[in-house]
UniProtKB/TrEMBL annotation:
Binds 1 zinc ion per subunit. It comes from the Bacteria. ATP binds at F19, S20, G21, G22, Q23, D24, S25, T26, T27, C28, L29. The gene is queC. Gene3D superfamilies: HUPs (3.40.50.620). Its cofactor is Zn(2+). Its EC number is 6.3.4.20. CDD domains: QueC-like. Belongs to the QueC family. GO terms for molecular function: ATP binding; ligase activity, forming carbon-nitrogen bonds; zinc ion binding. Zn(2+) binds at C207, C222, C225, C228. This is 7-cyano-7-deazaguanine synthase. InterPro entries: QueC (IPR018317), Rossmann-like_a/b/a_fold (IPR014729). One of its GO terms (biological process) is tRNA queuosine(34) biosynthetic process.
Length: 242
């Protein structure tokens, strides 16, 4: 196993990474492993249409451990939470087999109202129990689909609310907030070299439709949904700049 460089900026805190099995959350996991001595992961089964991402999670965690003895030592328990109630109280293209379209409110119907708010609240509860004081999420408002619960202001407000409600000093970290998908690929390369880029390309899942038939140069996916379009364009820009 290789020893990836430890660029730790905080060796006293423990981090809980919101880990879906996608490109962004895997990059965030590597980011957390480069900074914290103790890292745990949390995932959510909310009846998502692309549930294949959940099947990729244990594969990715195992391969991340194998990439680095340092990461292996730091990476702790994984938590899988049943949030199927989300699919029961919302009707979206992420939870139902419907066409992806724009809505009258200007948001795509892939937007799941309250999803990230609930994710962070549940993650904060688990972090409280586990003695972890940092939450790491892949939210981004630079290269995204316009979801309001991915915005920096939302995360900052949520951090205040969670700490007030639990009498904690929990910190919400969003390392991808101000970078585009090309820079996200670049960050992965900086954190784990070509090996991490290849892992993300071949083993993560982002496609909203759950398509894993053909492996494209940027990874698996239908190639047409918003998630695939962002990922493919970012990869092409990353390789061109490389």
């Amino acid at each position: 196993m290789t020893n990836l460089s430890n660029t730790s900026t905080n060796t006293t805190s423990g981090a809980l990474v919101l880990f879906s099995g996608g490109q962004d959350s895997t990059t965030c996991l590597a980011w957390a492993l480069s900074r914290y001595d103790r890292v745990e992961t949390i995932g959510f089964d909310y009846g998502q249409r692309h549930a294949v991402e959940l099947a990729q999670r244990p594969i990715l965690l195992e391969k991340c451990r194998a990439m680095s003895s340092t990461w292996d030592q730091k990476l702790g328990e994984d938590h899988m939470i049943d949030l199927s109630l989300i699919s029961k109280i919302s009707a979206t293209a992420m939870t139902e087999d419907v066409e992806i379209v724009m809505q009258e409110n200007g948001l795509p119907n892939t937007f799941v109202p309250g999803r990230n708010l609930l994710f962070m609240t549940v993650a904060a509860t688990v972090a409280y129990r586990r003695g972890l004081d940092v939450l790491v999420g892949g939210m981004c408002e630079t290269d995204f689909s316009g979801y309001p619960d991915c915005r920096d202001d939302t995360m900052k407000a949520l951090q205040v609310a969670l700490n007030l409600g639990m009498a904690t000093r929990l910190k919400l970290e969003t390392p991808l907030m101000w970078i585009d998908k090309s820079a996200t690929w670049k960050l992965a390369q900086e954190l784990g070299g070509d090996a991490l880029v290849d892992l993300i390309r071949a083993d993560t899942h982002t496609c909203y439709l759950g398509e894993r038939g053909a492996l494209h140069d940027w990874g698996y996916g239908c190639g047409t949904c918003p998630a695939c379009a962002l990922r493919a364009r970012g990869y092409q820009q990353f390789k061109t700049a490389g």
